[in-house]
Amino acid sequence: MNSLLHIFSPEDIYVISDGSTDRTAAKAREYTENVLDEAQNRGKMRSLNYLIQTFSLTDRYDYILFLDGGHDHRL
Description:
By secondary structure, this protein is of the alpha+beta class. The chain has helices at residues 2-5, 24-28, 44-54, 57-60, and strands at residues 15-18, 35-38. The chain starts with a helix and ends in a 15-residue tail after the last helix. Strands 1-2 form a two-stranded parallel ribbon. It has one domain (2-60).
């Protein structure tokens, strides 16, 4: 997450934790308020769509960059 903050401001970073059991959402909230912590695992594409809709991202941005933390827990 620190590397993202060199490029983007916290208000432009959005995170969804999709049924993960690690502390992704809690850790992300240390950097941005734009965090969704979903208990249900919707799958990657449905989760991204849910994030886009919840925060109305296509109404607010011309471009959206998706990054997947995968199993790298260095948020």
